[in-house]
Amino acid sequence: MSDAADIPVRVRPGIASLPPYKQGTQAGPDAYKLSSNENPFDPLPGVLQAVQSASAFNRYPDATATRLRERLAARFGVTLDEVHIGAGSVSILAQLVLATSGPGDEVVYAWRSFEAYPWLAVLAGATPVQVPLTADSRHDLDAMADAVTGRTRAILVCSPNNPTGPVVGQDEFDAFIQRVPSDILVILDEAYAEFVTAPGAVDGLTVLGNRTRGGAELPNVVVLRTFSKAFGLAALRVGYAIGHPRILDAARTTAIPLSVTAHAEAAALASLDAEEELLERVRHIGARRDRLAEALRDAGWAVPQAQGNFVWLPAHENTLAIAETFTAAGLIVRPFAGDGIRISVGEEESVDEVLRIAASVVEDLP
Ligand code: PMP
User: Which of 27, 48, 166, 303 lies at a CB distance of 3.0 to 4.6 Å from 31, suitable for a disulfide?
Assistant: First the structure.
């Protein structure tokens, strides 16, 4: 095969040099896959049943997933047009960035955070503006507000932050939003919201609730959530946004039509039917996470606040070597070279294995 440079087809500048989105390493049958923040529980029988009996394969799905929107609107006390469904929340992120930001515009987010942020900004032709996390791996919302310029069109706030784990506080978010001009979209990415147990953490639905209850006017905040993590539907690709209808209309316009399947919608609805049972699992994962994070700290790791379904090991320049040790032990983790390792909270049996390996390599830290 010839080198890409030899191919005459012109790819947009910026795209040719942009690496494709890279997912966590897949695991063999004998390994624990702890690299993609997935839910380790098997699907509930009722959810499987709903997928099987969803509409026929030869028919297109309902383009706006009305039944699921109705259900979520009732669940969260918002109107139907304040809910938008996407093929995973990453699709909605892409739609919103594309709808707001183009060449010459800036997209502000904390770094390190979700890998898709810089990638989506560049895809839209916009300029990514990364604001370093604090020393304890939190968003620095003051610095993020300071980074806003006349070109800023979107700000992405991730709470709990993937991959480091801490939440943004409700009070600091409220103060931050007062400093952001109202013509800039603020996306509050709460992919891991259901795992949060820390008091005082921001809750996007409270933020939006204040708006509908006549509190602060916040039409520029959109909250993103997903069925991939707490509800264990990562394979089916279904997430949602709640926010002002005008903003969501822009997302609906930039969306690839019909990408939410009837099967994904059916699974999400069945999951909401079984919400209590699924949230009980989430509480188990949260307890497992707390046990893991605490034991890692006891072993000498500077694990920051862990509020998602994962923990962060700041392994700095030893990241790749230490990740290799985990892999050799059958634990597939997610290394971010030069920075740290994210480990999902998986099966109960994997927790002791993670602890054993983490304790054995702690003295390799710089
Ligand atoms: N936001 C964050 C912070 C994430 O970590 C992820 C998935 N890793 C997503 C959004 C996207 O999830 P999905 O598309 O599966 O809803």
Answer: 27
Task: Judge if 19 and 58 occupy the same domain.
Answer: no
Pocket probe mutation, ligand 1, options 22, 68, 85, 90, max atoms within 8 Å of Cβ: 90
165 in the same domain as 104: yes
Q: Ligand 1 centre from 191 Cα, in Å?
A: 6
Q: Which of 190, 229, 310, 336 to mutate to test the pocket of ligand 1 (most atoms within 8 A of CB)?
A: 229
Whether the CA torsion 214, 219, 221, 226 is positive or negative: it is positive
pTM confidence score: 0.95
Residues with CB under 6 A from ligand 1: 37, 88-90, 114, 158, 162, 189, 191, 226, 228, 234, 239
Residue among 43, 39, 40, 30 nearest 347 (CA): 40
* 27: its two tokens: 């695991």
- Ligand 1 centroid–CA 2 distance in Å is 35
d(CA 199, CA 171): 11
Distance of CA 36 from the midpoint of ligand 1 (Å): 9
Domain boundary among 229, 245, 273: 273
Say if residues 188 and 202 touch (Cβ distance below 8 Å): yes
Label residue 213 by pLDDT band (50, 70, 90): very low
pLDDT tens-place string over residues 130-172 = 999 999 999 999 999 999 999 999 999 999 999 999 999 999 9
**82-98: pLDDT as tens digits:** 999 999 999 999 999 99
State which residues form the domain around 187: 45-273
* 189 in the same domain as 72: yes
Q: Which helix (DSSP H) or strand (DSSP E) does residue 269 occupy?
A: helix 262-273
